[in-house]
Amino acid sequence: MVLLVKKIIRERISESLYWKEQTFRLNCPAATLSDRAVELTYIGGQYGDQKPTPFLCLVFKLLQLMPEREIVLQYLHDTDFKYLRSAVDIFKILEKLKLRGQAGFRLTYMDEFIDDLLTNDRVCDIALPRVPTRAQLEDLDKLEPRESALESEIESGDESVASGGEDD
């Protein structure tokens, strides 16, 4: 998993001050890594003069530690930490994320970031493994087809929509 991060970026991470001071002794993903994660104020890969962000350093450390699936699920269901919340809390509290890149900071949205994780080859300077599309998983009967509330309204032939909203 560590090889998802290119060698040059791994070297930049290991040479960074944040890595040396904040992540060097982290060896238990369930406790100490989450303590550092709650301190994050933005996400991102590299910035400025190719410096790795604290987010990238922690992602790399997590890849090094390779926590068991149960620990990752514990992170995802934890309600005490800002960047480790339930799906509802993500959209209520974390809908907007601050992303640091080469050109500086910009705002992004959680659903946009997740879409990037699912569809792009690289996010935050990390090469991501291919994930099957939802349609492929539906074809393999691994997921139920998604039902859209908007689609059912369109199919019902709502009179006001069909007539352009004019009453006769």
TrEMBL record:
Looking at the keywords, is Oxidoreductase present? no
GO biological-process terms attached to the record: mRNA splicing, via spliceosome
| Assigned GO CC terms | spliceosomal complex
**What keywords are assigned to this protein?**
mRNA processing, mRNA splicing, Nucleus, Spliceosome
- The reply on keyword DNA-binding is no
Q: In which domain of life is the source organism classified?
A: Eukaryota
Please state the protein's primary subcellular location. nucleus
InterPro entries in UniProt:
PRP38 (IPR005037)
Q: Where is this region: Disordered?
A: 147-168
Subcellular localization: Nucleus
Quote the Pfam families the UniProt record gives: PRP38
Q: Which family does it belong to?
A: Belongs to the PRP38 family.
Q: What does this protein do?
A: Required for pre-mRNA splicing.
Protein name, please?
Answer: Pre-mRNA-splicing factor 38
Q: Which organism is it from?
A: Terfezia boudieri ATCC MYA-4762
Source organism phylogeny: Eukaryota, Fungi, Dikarya, Ascomycota, Pezizomycotina
